[in-house]
Amino acid sequence: MPRDRSHPRTHTYPPMASFTLHGIPVSRGIAIGRAHLLTPAALDVRHYLIAEENVEAEVQRLQQALAAVHRELQTLWNELPKDAPTELGAFIDVHALILSDPMISEAPLDIIRSRHYNAEWALLTQIDELSAQFDEIEDPYLRERKADIQQVAERVLKVLMGSEPLPTAITPAAGDEFQAQMIVVAHDISPADMLKFRDRSFIGFVTDVGGQNSHTAIVARSLDIPAAVGMSQASQLIKQDDWVIIDGDAGVVIVTPSALVLEQYRERQQAALRARKKLSKLKKTPAVTKDGTAITLLANIELPDDCPAALEAGASGVGLFRSEFLFMGRASDIPSEDEQFEQYRRAVAAMKGRIVTIRTLDIGADKPLDQSEHTALNPALGLRAIRYCLSEPQIFLTQLRAILRASAFGKVRILIPMLAHAFEIDQSLAMIEQAKAQLRELDIKYDPEVQVGAMIEIPAAALALPMFVKRMDFLSIGTNDLIQYTLAIDRVDYEVAHLYNPLHPAVLQLIAMTIAAGHKAGIDVGVCGEMAGDTKLTRLLLGMGLREFSMHPAQLLSVKQEILNSDLETVVPQTRKILRAMEPAAIAEAVQALQTM
Ligand code: PEP
Ligand code: MG
């Protein structure tokens, strides 16, 4: 039976030895809570908490699924062909027995009642616990029954996932102790899995693998909750229910902290809250430097649901809508034109007349369409983003029509990822024209003036800018990939994460060149990679001439504050010096000095 969590031990800390793990900070802030270990199987289902008044309905949903599987097994048994091997009948009997056992038919119901987990999550929690017990059994025959239990659970999950979930996901209330303090600990969480955590049942993430700018880290930041990745063996060393502190600014995780350490972190948490409150006063203040230069601050979003946060942060629009998040985990059922149109239109409507930059499908590498998909040897160098789209013209055309249709409802820009070759630009533009012609034929409205831009995220693009500015309406620098491809380090691989350096002189040169070339050609240039949201780099980017920053909404007000305190008269000459420097130590020192000017 699961442990009863209805009486959280908020102030009784386990007398276990405390230890600290060091990894990569990916999402700011401090989280203090109890570890919730998630196995890969558990990551396949959605996790949300059920409101008190709906707990019994959720219990019923699971009971109905169990009953449906019972009927399914019964039918299977009845329809067994006469000449079927006897093992088959016995096999169905074993599954029916497992299904009726209280460990499956009752324990998960208790978990829903005591922990308020949704039915799928409750069932998997119970299966994980049972699996761990089975692993310890010495008898190999009995140990193998674990597979049967898992198969039965899968049947129930299938029924559950096909049934309508209750629309009762809740955000834990501040005073709701046990629900408000779970920290996910897992070996890895894919960006698609992260989407399942959007209803905020958890307050922090710790993973063994991952890098600063992996898409998992980016989604953690977009959820605006503390996270640390690249923690090596965290999922082995941290035990279920251990008290854990995540220091998301330092990339440190403290396990079973002493009362004193805990107190210090609680104070830091409070101070951060106060600072955030102060920042919120800047929401309506125009982003203008001390010398009067206006800066555009845009938001990066993954789904239309992120738009309210963008508005709340005072964004002037969306600079990057990562449309692939609508597609992930749906390989066999990619969203139709109408479904996509509806999502793009929702984002456009939510932004109330502000610009919405929709990036076309950037699938591949660490964002596969389907987790089980065959992976290329070097996925980051493989059939990703525009390469994939040009190889799947029907998928691309469908998306383009959907985006164009949404452009009739507001200010939409189309952004194409990972371009490197002139023929890729030309083919993309030709397909946009084809999509427009198809809509015209059907008398469907779109904005004929819709702007089309290129992401500059491959060094070859940054070194061949005339090819781009001639054909494109605007440029957006994807520093995450630009760094990855310039320095030849996989942004997902934590073993080379220490080599991921935005201040490498080669990276700085490429960014500065792109901004200058765009402006010389009279087109807008923005940065939509993570560098745009890093306040330590705001002045450097301003000094390079950047006037458009796109970042996660949670970073926007801090960047605005930095802009308000910056004076281009001092920032520009210092940046010139930095761009001439080639020694990392000198660059780091000069960037530091820039912040205090
Ligand atoms: C980038 O590469 O900087 C970028 C913004 O795109 P993504 O992180 O989605 O690859
Ligand atoms: Mg990119």
From TrEMBL:
The keyword Cytoplasm applies. Its cofactor is Mg(2+). It is found in: Cytoplasm. Phosphoenolpyruvate binds at residues 322, 359, 480-481, 491. Keywords: Cytoplasm, Kinase, Magnesium, Metal-binding, Phosphotransferase system, Sugar transport, Transferase, Transport. The active site is at 215 (tele-phosphohistidine intermediate), 528 (proton donor). It is an enzyme of class 2 (transferase). SUPFAM superfamilies: Enzyme I of the PEP:sugar phosphotransferase system HPr-binding (sub)domain, Phosphoenolpyruvate/pyruvate domain, Phosphohistidine domain. PANTHER family: PHOSPHOENOLPYRUVATE-PROTEIN PHOSPHOTRANSFERASE (PTHR46244). This is Phosphoenolpyruvate-protein phosphotransferase.
